[in-house]
Amino acid sequence: MADFQGIIVIHKEKGFTSHDVVAKLRGICRQKKIGHTGTLDPQATGVLPVCLGSATRACEMLTDRTKEYVAELLLGQITDTQDTTGTVLEEREVTVDEAQVREVIGSFVGGYDQIPPMYSARKVNGKKLYELARAGKEVERQARHVDLPAIEILEIRLPVVKFRVECSKGTYIRSLCADIGGKLGCGGTMQSLVRTRVGEFRLADALTLAQLQELRDTDRLEEALLPTDRIFADFHAVHVEEKWRKLIDNGNAFYPGQTMEQTTYPAGEWVRVYREDDSFVGIYAYDGAKEWYKPVKIFPSNTESRK
After folding, report:
1. How far apart are CA 12 and CA 121, in angstroms?
2. Where are the beta strands (DSSP E) in 168-218?
3. Tens digits of per-residue pLDDT, 235-260?
4. Taking all residues of the chain, what is their mean pLDDT, rounded to a whole number?
5. Is residue 135 packed enough to be buried (19+ CB in 10 Å), middle (13-18) or exposed (0-12)?
6. Contact status, residue 150 vs residue 166, Cβ threshold 8 Å
7. How far is CA 61 from the centre of its chain?
8. Are the C-beta atoms of residues 19 and 35 closer than 8 Å to each other?
9. Which helix (H) or strand (E) holds 159?
10. Helix, strand or coil for residue 5?
11. What pLDDT sits at residue 61?
12. CA distance between the termini of the chain
C-alpha cells in the first residue's frame, strides 16, 4: 500500500461525483487515506483538490477557501433543481435587454442572503435536502449570507449569460442563477458550471483521472503531488530553532524567542510553522495572553520540504 502525503488537484469531469473521484483515486494511488475538499455537483466540472495521507487533516481548511466559477445562466426557464438537469417547472418569455441583465447581475456583487436549493446536501433537522426533495417534500430553508467579491460578465447571448463569479464557502451558483432570473422577472436556471479555482489552486494546474492513471503507469505519480503547506501559502512562515525541535515534534506550543525569525504576529493570526531544516510541522496561532504560538493543526507524518 502506498503512503503519499500531500495534495493532488483534480480536474473533475462531468458525470463524476466528488466521492467517485476519491474512490477512483484510491485505486490509482493504491492508498486508502484520501479525502476531497468539498463537493462539486456531478454535472459541474473543474477544480477539486484532493488530500492524501496526513494532508487529509487540511480538508476542512480548504473547504473554507474562496472559490471561483464560470457559469452559464439560461434565462426564461425554471427547474426544480435550478439547473438544466432538472424537471422544467415553467418557461417564460425573455424580454429583458443586455443593459437590464448587467444592472441586475451587478446588484449581487458584494453578497446577499441566499436560500439553499432543495436539491443540495445541506441538512435540515438531520435530513439532507436532496433526500427530502426526491421524496417529493419541500421544507423551509433558512437563508444564509454569502459573499460575492466579484462577478464579471463574460458574454451575453440572450437568453444565455456567461459570467465568472468569486464567492465564499457555502455559495450555490445554481441558486445564484435562479435568483438573478427571478430578479429579472423571467426566471433562470444554470446551464453549465466550471470551477476554475479553489484558494490558490487553479484549473490550469489540475489533472484528469486519466492523466493521473498515466502517471501511475509510468511510475511518475509523485509529479502530481503538491506539498501540504501549499494550502497555506498566504500565511507567514515561522521556523523553530533546531534546539527546540522536540517541542514542535511533540505538538507543543513555543515562544517567539525560540524561532529563527524572532517575530510576533497579531493574536489569533495563523502562521505556517517549520523546523529549521524547512520541513513543515503545521499551523499555529499566536496566543496574546500567554505570549506563545499554540498549535491549530499539526501534520505529524508530513516531512516534505517547502517548495
Report:
1. 19
2. 188-198, 201-202
3. 999 999 999 999 999 999 999 999 99
4. 90
5. exposed
6. yes
7. 9
8. no
9. none
10. coil
11. 81
12. 26
Polymer length in residues for the chain: 307
- Give CA–CA dist 203/48, Å, rounded: 9
| Contact assessment for residue 302 and residue 54, using Cβ atoms and an 8 Å cutoff | yes
Q: Which residues contact 137 (CB under 8 A, 6 or more apart)?
A: none
> For the chain, what percent of residues have pLDDT higher than 70?
92
User: Catalytic amino acids?
Assistant: 41
How far apart, in whole angstroms, are the C-alpha atoms of residue 36 and residue 182? 33
The DSSP annotation for 34-71 comes to EEESS---TT-EEEEEEEEGGGGGGHHHHHTS-EEEEE
Helices and strands (DSSP H and E) totals, the chain: 7, 18
Helix (H/G/I), strand (E/B), else coil: 20? helix
pTM over 0.85: yes
Residue with cell 463574460: 154
Q: Residue 302: pLDDT band by 50, 70, 90 thresholds?
A: very low
Query: Binning pLDDT at 50, 70 and 90, where does residue 131 land?
Result: low
Note if the bond before 49 is cis, omega within 30 degrees.
no
- Residue 1 burial (CB count, 10 A): 7
Give the three cell numbers for residue 114: 441566499
